[in-house]
Amino acid sequence: MALLPSSGTLSVTTINTLKSLGTSYTSLTSRELQYMGGNPASASTSLVCFPNQNEKVSSTNWTYNGADLPWRPTKISEFYGAYNNLPAVAVTTSGTGTRSTANFIANCSNSSIYINAGTPYSVYGVNVTGVTHANLNTWIVCSAVNGTQFTWAAASVNPSGTSTLRVYVRDFRNCGTMNEFTGTVNYP
């Protein structure tokens, strides 16, 4: 796990640790585009997070969609706080005792920022099939108790078939990737 410092001196070698490149010669511009996943950007491609350069621009699109090459001119200070452990989410489902409702529980993990600072994650739930809940289509901060879990409790679901919830995650520094989880509950 590489986590660059948030202040102080940064060197090209330190920056290269995000991708285990050692002391190889590099251009900051090409390195930033590589780390941001190129153009369009994708942390899921590069496996590197830059603080506050959240790629989510809509509920279905995490990629940079500007007209020009992004992040120019490149400065060494842009690499402050970058890290290479992307946030991840796993979702479990449980019944509520009623065929028309279910609980979807998002458990977040992996982000270097949470591991090092214990800061909360945020999750974004999108109905794919048959799920209704007040906290869909909006970013929700996970529990203040442990920062890693959120439950869509007693979500209304299709009582005679399959209901699917897609969940996105971002960490406290706004790093996230695309389509982290799709969770399904089935009723006979």
Q: Can you describe this structure?
A:
With 188 residues, this protein is an alpha+beta fold. It folds into two domains: 68 residues, no CATH class; 99 residues, Immunoglobulin-like (Sandwich), CATH 2.60.40. Helix content is 12%, strand content 29%. The protein is built from four helices and eight strands; from the N terminus they run αααββαββββββ. Strands 1-2-6-4 form a four-stranded antiparallel beta sheet, with no helix packed on it. Strands 5-3-7-8 form a four-stranded antiparallel beta sheet, with no helix packed on it. The chain is elongated, with a radius of gyration of 19 Å. About 11% of the residues have low confidence.
Topology:
Layout: H1 12-16, H2 28-35, H3 43-46, E1 88-95, E2 101-109, H4 112-117, E3 122-129, E4 131-132, E5 139-141, E6 149-157, E7 162-170, E8 181-186
List keywords for this structure.
12% helix, Immunoglobulin-like, four-stranded antiparallel β-sheet, 4 helices, 2 domains, 188 residues, alpha+beta
Quick take:
With 188 residues, the chain is α+β, with helices and mostly antiparallel strands. It has 4 helices and 8 strands.
